[in-house]
Amino acid sequence: MKIKWVAFRTNYSFNDLVQSFLYNQYSQANERGFVLTRANDKLILGKHVVKTLQKESVEDPFGGHFEREYTVFETVEFELSAERPNSLKLKNPPRKLKLFLQDFLHICGFRSMVSEIKVDCLGVVSFLESKGLKCQVTQMDLEGVPISDDSTASLTLKGVGDVRSSIQNILPGKSVKAKKLSVLIGIDGERCSSVIASTGLFLLNPRGEFPLSSLEVLLYESLLGKFLVSN
Fold it and tell me: Within its chain, how far is the Cα of 222 from the centroid?
C-alpha cells in the first residue's frame, strides 16, 4: 500500500467542501471528477477519477498492424480528517499529481492551499525509534553527496544490516540527505517492509498481524511540522 500526505489549508468547513465535491461529481459526460464514499462534518473520504482513451499499435500474425483502443481509469483515493488538520492523505497515488491537485484546489476555492511536501527520511526513522519502534535501514539512496569542493553525486548504500552505521565510515564528517530509504519496521514482534521517500510517499508492506493503523498515526505525527500554519 502506498500513502502520501500533502499540505492542505482552507477556510471552508467540511460541510461546505462536501457540497463542492457533490457539485463536481464524476460523470460520463465530463469523464473527470470526484466520487465521495463517506462524508460528514469531521471526515471526507473519496476518489478523484479521470477516464482516458488510450491507443496502442498491435501486430497481427501476418505482419499487419492495427490500432486498438482501450479505456483507462486513473484514480486517486483521498482522506480529509478533522483529527489531522492542514493535511490531505492520499492512498495509492499515481506518480504525477498535477491534475488531481489542480482539480482538488478548484473544488476547495480560492481561499485554500494544497501542495506537496519534502520529507526528512532519516528524521522520520529517528522519530519512529523515539516512539519505541525498531527500525533497520537496509538501503539508502543519497543525493547531494559532496565529492569535491564544487561537485556532488548520488550514492546508494545497501546491506544486510543497518546501513546507517556505514555513513560516517564512507563520508566522515559529511552531512547527507536521503532521497529514499528501505526500512524494516518492527512493532510488538510484527514487521513491516517499507520505503520512505523524500517526496512524502510511504510504501508499506505489513506482514502477519502488523498494526498498520498505529504506524500510520506515527508517520503522520512525524510530519506534523510540515503542516503547521503560522497565524
Answer: 14
Count other C-beta atoms under 10 Å from residue 199's C-beta.
17
**Range name among 16-25, 133-142, 222-231 with the lowest pLDDT average:** 222-231
23 contacts: CB under 8 Å, gap ≥ 6: none
The residues that bridge with 66 in the sheet, in sequence order, are 58
CB 200 within 8 A of CB 223: yes
Dist. CA 173–CA 24, nearest whole Å: 54
Could you write out the DSSP letters of every residue in 43-105?
Answer: EEEEEEEEEEEEEEEEE-TTS-EEEEEEEEEEEEEEEEETTSTTEEEEES--S--HHHHHHHH
pLDDT digits 0-9 by tens, 55-107: 888 888 877 888 888 888 889 999 999 888 889 999 999 888 888 888 888 88
> Which 3 state secondary structure label does DSSP give 164?
helix
Phi and psi, residue 211, nearest 5°: -80, 80
Given this model, what pLDDT does residue 231 score? 43
Section 169-176 average pLDDT: 74
Q: What is the mean pLDDT of residues 142-163?
A: 82
Cell of 27: 460523470
pTM: 0.83
List, in sequence order, every residue forming a beta bridge with 155; answer none if it has no partner. 142
Can you tell me which residue has the cell 477556510? Answer: 11
Give residue-wise pLDDT tens across range 185-204.
999 889 999 999 999 999 99
